[in-house]
Amino acid sequence: MHAYTVGSIVAALAAISLELILDKGRLYREWSFWISLAIIFFFQILVDGYLTKLSSPVVIYSSHHFSGFRFPFSIPIEDFIYGFAMIQLTLTIWNRLKDRYPSR
Length: 104
Fold this sequence. Notes:
Shape: elongated
Radius of gyration: 16 Å
Strand content: under 5%
C-alpha cells in the first residue's frame, strides 16, 4: 500500500470538499488563489528538487510508500498533491474567518 499516495489524495479530496461545501468553490474563482499556488509551487520545485535530488538526496522516500512517479526532476508527485491540499485548506479556513470576523 502506498501510504503517502493515499494520504495525499485523501487530504486533497477532503480540502476540495470542504471548500465546495463551505464556500461553494469561491476560492477557485479567484485569480489570487491560482497565482499564489503557482508562486508556492515554483519555490517548492526549487527546495524539493534540491532535497530529493537522486544524485545525493537529503530526503529519501521508501518505494513502498509512494507511487514512484517523480516530476519535475526527482520530486514525488505526492509532494505537490499534499502541498495543494495544505495551501487550499489554509486559504479556505482563512476566508471563512475573514468573513466571520471582518476587520474593524
